TrEMBL record:
UniProtKB keywords: DNA recombination
Gene3D superfamilies registered for this protein in UniProt: Intergrase catalytic core
GO molecular function terms noted in the UniProt entry: DNA binding
Record has Transmembrane helix as a keyword: no
InterPro entries noted in UniProt: DNA_brk_join_enz, Integrase-like_cat_sf
Protein name: Tyr recombinase domain-containing protein
Gene Ontology annotations of biological process type: DNA integration; DNA recombination
Keyword DNA-binding: no
């Protein structure tokens, strides 16, 4: 088994490449754009994962950390690609997308009554202070694996937000980061936070209405 110096027992990219290509050749995945079987390799999959991070709101520094790059400059292209994607979506669907994209789509539950969290502790989603904010209905997804949870979870239907969770503190942090991006001249990057900010605001209002109804 070929290995990379300093990474004993870990296969290098050359050793992974052929098995990876064989698997996708057998799957014969057809591109919805060309109608032809896709040519997939490990490098392409890497780009897909990093682009996905950008579309989930990660900045160049965060993407670089996940990619193992020493400089965030090499990852700015992924952020730009994410911005282009959002702009294309806006042009295509426009206002029709707003009622769906800018609302909290998950469920509001009490931590003590969250059966999913009780049955599967790994489904609990935590903020940077390791404080629980809710749980994932399906136990986890790529957002967790990519390290963008729980922020990305607020726009997901599978998120079970705890009514007593520190959502407002997370909102304040997001607003602060958005302001920093704007002040630094990165308004496009700042805009990628908007959907999550609106979703959390919507969640907080839902929690307030629920508490008012409960008396």
């Amino acid at each position: 088994m070929r290995t990379t110096p300093g990474l004993d027992q870990h296969q290098d990219r050359h050793a992974i490449q052929k098995p990876f290509e064989k698997i996708f050749a057998r799957l014969a995945v057809v591109s919805p754009l060309t109608g032809r079987v896709m040519v997939v390799n490990a490098q392409r999959e890497r780009h897909t994962v990093l682009t996905g991070l950008a579309m989930n709101g990660c900045n160049a520094l965060e993407i670089a950390a996940n990619a193992g790059h020493s400089s965030p400059e090499s990852c700015q292209a992924y952020v730009d690609a994410g911005i282009d994607h959002f702009q294309r979506m806006e042009r295509l669907v426009g206002e029709a997308f707003i009622p769906i994209a800018d609302r909290f789509l998950g469920k509001v539950v009490r931590e003590a009554k969250d059966r999913k969290a009780q049955q599967d502790p790994d489904a609990v989603l935590r903020d940077t202070n390791l404080t629980g904010v809710g749980s994932c209905e399906i136990g986890g997804c790529r957002a967790v694996e990519a390290g963008v949870a729980p922020v990305a979870c607020y726009t997901c239907r599978k998120f079970r937000a705890w009514a007593e969770g520190p959502h407002e503190a997370l909102l304040v942090n997001l607003l602060a980061r958005q302001s920093e991006f704007i002040e630094a001249g990165h308004s496009e990057v700042a805009e990628t936070r908007t959907a999550t900010i609106v979703a959390i605001t919507d969640l907080l209002e839902a929690i307030r209405q629920r508490e008012a109804a409960d008396g």
